[in-house]
Specification:
Layout (H helix, E strand, L loop, with lengths): L4 E4 L26 E4 L69 H7 L1 H4 L13 H18 L3 H12 L8 E2 L3 E2 L34 H8 L24 H8 L8 H7 L6 H12 L17 H9 L14
Antiparallel strand pairs: 1-2, 3-4
Length: 327
Amino acid sequence: MLSPTFVALASFSVLISAAPYPSDLTIPTPTVSQTYFFGNKDGNFMPSRTLNGPQPAAKGGVVTNPAVAVTSINNNDGSGAGTDVYLQYNGRGTTADGWPAKTAWVSFTQMFNNNKGLMGSSCAQFGQANNSPDETGKIYDAIQAAASATKLDHRFILAIALQESGGCVRAPTTNYGVRNPGIMQDHNGDGTCNDSDGSTQGGAVPHQVQNPCPSGVINLMISTKTQPYLEASPRPKSSTPFYSVTDLITDEGAAGTASGDGLAQTVNESGASDVSAWYKGARIYNSGSVDPSGDLGKGVATHCYSSDIANRLTGWVSAPHNCNLDG
């Protein structure tokens, strides 16, 4: 997970696949008045699976609760564009506690379009080239592939990507006790286009930044491929096949890594059959657990995390981040 950042810059068998990223959806030029927030100060603290004894590899996760699983792709789901405002949510993530029902979530198309300015400018603060329109388009494709493979809601995947890195394909690898690489800042995964921690994991070249970020790496960061994408041009000084942008989202962030859970597993671990499954799943992704009290604003790591995700899902883009749970 990246440090808190404000950026001011100009049934499965019948699953319907989404169309690829439309080429005419260009990224708007951010205006000076736009201020974006993402990240938090404490990182993702999901404990290593080895700490809890031998367990099967996490990767390849799928949402198993039929009350929660999403079995079709609908880009016009939700309530349109929503409202760019931040409301702090407290409690257990249920509608009874005031959290937004899924019917209040914005549509995927609107959510993606509303956040293109953020995705197109979030890399600059790391001293890296911002996403190209093609790279942002690959994020779109990767999220759709991830949703199809894991039965996660595509809006939830996008919200986590925005929260973790602002959708920057060259987001640096962070480590606050657990190594978090890539767009989704996942649990000790291989996919990254910025090997800032000097790791050679997954065939990486230490400290290498890839521009452009290959589509196979983006897939690994987000989607569910279990084998590396063979690229036409191998990484410099390495003959190891590597992953692309879609990998960065679909394999590791959504479906898990060999070291820890992805979003599909954390939603399953929530044990919920209502909308709170998504908010609890987000908290588990960030911290490894929900506080014994059930309050999503208590416990370790980022206390505002689930509230942030709820707001992103209902239209928050650049309004002031009015959450006081982290002090």
